[in-house]
Amino acid sequence: MRTPIYARFSTDLQNSLSVDDQKAVYRERCVREGWQIADIYSDAAVSGAAGIDEKARPGMWAMLRQLERGGVDQVLAEHTDRLSRHPGDASHIRQQILYSKARLNNEQ
Predict the structure, then answer these.
(1) Spatial separation of the C-alpha atoms in residues 94 and 34, rounded to whole Å
(2) Per-residue pLDDT tens for 5-35?
(3) How far apart are CA 102 and CA 98, in angstroms?
(4) Rounded CA gap, 22 and 42, in Å?
(5) Domain boundaries, the chain
């Protein structure tokens, strides 16, 4: 399973290690499941409601570009709220994942 990983924490009030912690958990899961890590994307100190364009969330934007190029079987994220807290953006992300014939795999 070719799997891009996406990690995010929302504000300076959260521990910046949380992105590194998320990545470590995802890497361990990929090894355990035998999944190939396609790439790792992250956005630090950015709200999940900030939008999904290149300036607002460059990590998310880059992951969506990878989905457009294809070759992805699933996206691994901690929870759907890591992808977006804005209903319209969340719908767009889910549609992009489905359109690329991939699935969303939540860590939780």
Answers:
(1) 24
(2) 999 887 655 565 688 888 999 999 999 999 9
(3) 6
(4) 10
(5) 2-106
Position 108 pLDDT exceeds 80: no
Q: What is the pLDDT of residue 17?
A: 63
**What is the Cα–Cα distance from 89 to 71, expressed in whole angstroms?**
22
For residues 1 and 33, is the Cβ–Cβ distance under 8 A?
yes
Q: Which of the two residues, 103 and 81, has the higher pLDDT score? A: 103
CATH of domain 2-106: 3.40.50.1390
Closest to 28 measured CA to CA, from 78, 74, 66 = 78
Mean pLDDT, range 65-90, rounded to an integer: 89
Question: Residue 38: which of 8, 85, 70 has the closest Cα?
Answer: 70
Helix (H, G, I), strand (E, B) or coil at 82: helix
